[in-house]
Amino acid sequence: MAEKILLVDDEKDFLSVMSERMKNRGMEVTTAESAKDALQEVERGSFDAIVLDLMMPGVDGIETLKAIKRSKPELQVILLSGHATLEKGIEAMKLGALDFVEKPANIDELTERIKKAKAQKLVLVERQMENKLKSILEAKGW
Amino acid sequence: MKTELDIIAQAGLRYFGRTTASISHELKNALAIIRENAGLMDDYLAMAEKGLPIDMAKFKVLTGRIEGQTRRADGLIKNMNRFAHSVDEPLRKVNLNEMVELLAALSHREAAMRQVGLQVAQCQQPVVLVTAPYLLLTLLGHCLTYALTAVNAGGTIILKVQGDTPGAIVFESLNRLAALPPDAFPDERVTVLAEALGAHYQADSAAGKVGLTLKNLQ
């Protein structure tokens, strides 16, 4: 099944070309040019992974990552930046980002990481389901 | 205890660091777009090898994007080069119109991150004076950062060059969110840099204006 991706970047040309390359690789891609649009898409849709630019006007990638994780903790976020520093990478991972990729990214590497993100999300969703079932069973005393 | 020279050196280095970081970030963005467009051309060629026809109109869009981003990167490098050469001589003749144009170009990303536009209003005549160009850029950069703190997203700062006494630069904020925070200006760096340049600063926090009157150092 095709990976469902939300690609977030304030550079229109980047969004356009990257989404086409991802689609050529069989992914279903939704794009957002700002953190605000991205958060709306997160509320609206279901994604296997979010590829998120770290430096954006207004609300930056780290703040967006926090908001995504608050709203849907199972979502897997890959941060993409032309400005990668070790500190930012560590901060992002501590906040729950799955990966941190420096621009310009290699599309095949990014595709691999997206597949990893999808697998990770499936594990988390399965675990959430298990916990839900367990709590129902405990509550009913079966 | 920090001497005035220490403060100037630290302020200058800090300005150099954040400016080159900002330019390199923009350059990386341009390179990423160039690389992905080249990659997409490869994708089309790989599809053509499998017998799918190449859409020439789409292909032309990609070459246009590569050309546009190459021009963007070239502009960034030219500005970085002008910035780097501002340290060549401690004192030299500068045209404030050109200096403010360079400042706006170097500060474009800082302003864009706050969703604020920068507009340059040059003086009709060249405003030429002898000054320390790198120190002046550093001082202007700090003043602009301060002016940015009060502008609402979607707002604009006008960078005005005035040709009197012998030259002045005023940052005027439009669409202000609030008055400029009066206790944040001038900080230690602005005071020491202005003194070294023989410049006078004025901040009208209610009107959202920051101004610098410069001195000919010759």
Name some characteristics of this structure:
heterodimer; A: about 140 residues; alpha/beta; Rossmann fold; 5-stranded parallel beta sheet; 5 helices; B: about 220 residues; alpha+beta; Helix Hairpins; Heat Shock Protein 90; 5-stranded mixed beta sheet; two-stranded antiparallel sheet; about 55% helix; about 20% strand
Question: Any overview of this molecule?
Answer:
- With 142 residues, chain A is of the alpha/beta class.
- Chain A has helices at 12-24, 35-44, 61-71, 86-94, 107-140; strands at 4-8, 28-32, 49-53, 77-81, 99-102.
- Chain A has a five-stranded parallel beta sheet, with helices on both faces.
- In chain A, helix 2 packs parallel to helix 3 (61-71).
- Chain A is globular, with a radius of gyration of 16 Å.
- The N and C termini of chain A lie far apart (36 Å).
- In chain A, 37% of the residues are buried.
- Chain B has 218 residues and is an alpha+beta fold.
- Chain B folds into two domains: 4-85, Helix Hairpins, CATH 1.10.287; 92-214, Heat Shock Protein 90.
- Chain B has helices at residues 4-49, 56-85, 96-113, 133-148, 188-197, and strands at residues 92-95, 117-121, 128-131, 151-162, 167-176, 200-204, 209-214.
- Chain B is elongated.
- The model of chain B has no long low-confidence stretch (mean pLDDT 90).
- The A-B interface holds A 11, 13-14, 17-18, 20-21, 24, 55-58, 60, 82-83, 103-105, 107 and B 21, 24-29, 31-33, 35-37, 39-40, 43, 47, 62, 65, 68-69, 112-115, 153.
CATH superfamily of the largest domain in chain B: Histidine kinase-like ATPase, C-terminal domain
Q: How does the major sheet of chain B shape up?
A: 5 strands, mixed
Helical fraction of chain B equals 55-70%
Please, what is the average pLDDT of chain B?
Answer: 90
- Using only C-alpha atoms, the radius of gyration of chain B works out to 21 Å
Helix-and-strand structural type of chain A: alpha/beta
CATH architecture tag of the largest domain in chain B: 2-Layer Sandwich
Order of helices and strands of chain A: EHEHEHEHEH
Task: State the assembly state of the protein chains.
Answer: heterodimer
DSSP, total strands of chain B? 7
Structurally, how many domains make up the residues of chain A? 1
Strand content of chain A: 15-25%
Shape of chain B: elongated
Number of helices of chain A: 5
Instruction: Give the biggest sheet of chain A.
Output: 5 strands, parallel
Indicate the CATH class of the largest domain in chain B.
Alpha Beta
* Cα-to-Cα separation, first versus last residue of chain A: 36 Å
CATH-defined fold name of chain A: Rossmann fold
- Predict the CATH topology of the largest domain in chain B: Heat Shock Protein 90
**What's the arrangement of strands in the largest beta sheet of chain A?**
2-1-3-4-5
Distance between the first and last residues' Cα of chain B? 31 Å
